[in-house]
Task: structure prediction
Amino acid sequence: MAFQKAVKGTILVGGGALATVLGLSQFAHYRRKQMNLAYVKAADYISEPVNREPPSREAQLLTLQNTSEFDILVIGGGATGSGCALDAVTRGLKTALVERDDFSSGTSSRSTKLIHGGVRYLQKAIMKLDIEQYRMVKEALHERANLLEIAPHLSAPLPIMLPVYKWWQLPYYWVGIKLYDLVAGSNCLKSSYVLSKSRALEHFPMLQKDKLVGAIVYYDGQHNDARMNLAIALTAARYGAATANYMEVVSLLKKTDTKTGKLHVSGAWCKDVLKGQECDMRAKCVINAMGHFTDAVCKMDDK
Result:
């Protein structure tokens, strides 16, 4: 038992030293990058949105019905589908987005609500000396800071308390969490700290009291994924994308390619779930962004 603890201690110290060197090098690289970005001028820019206020659903439906052919038709109004629509319309493509339920009604409203770098992945990176795991944590921490900066109305720092029930785990976890703060560098939200047993029980009286040693508090981010999804869809609509919720795809439209002679998808036959009206939407490209319902659309193409 003592030998195992000694080995773990050696690995932790060695891994900690490695993480420190990598963290400092990454921090220096980040600072150089930020200094260079300060002198870069935008080569291009996106014009102002077409509509200051998103068009009504009725107006959107008229656009969907009266447009002879779109450049892109996106099926699925989750985060991925809305993101595709926003990306396409801001590139000047005639874009349509349909969702059979409400926007963000599926996976995009059922996440953990966390934006985190991944403490467990950092542990794997140190214990197994895995540079790829470390890079993934570093990138995730950078994206966490980016999301907190660009969407402060939808994101916020979140304190997370880790109860500790063995004395040797207290310094072990404390060092690991401090390395997590170090890897975050300038993107660290707030420094982690240790709570005594009494303070931990004061915050969470329902904790198991027996053998409780204390607790460690560290910070990650919390994010309102459903509202972010809706914001992306509304932004796409403001830039001119024809978007409609409760618009179900009944079947896919196909036509023969004049060059190859093969059938390919050229749009979709859709039904307004609220009013029962149906219409066809032609498009040069159809994107299946249905998440875990992807196979339902794939079977429409090939059973």
Remarks:
- Confidence is low (pLDDT under 50) at residues 32-43.
- The domain at 57-110+226-302 is CATH 3.50.50.60 (FAD/NAD(P)-binding domain).
- The chain has two domains: 57-110+226-302, 114-223.
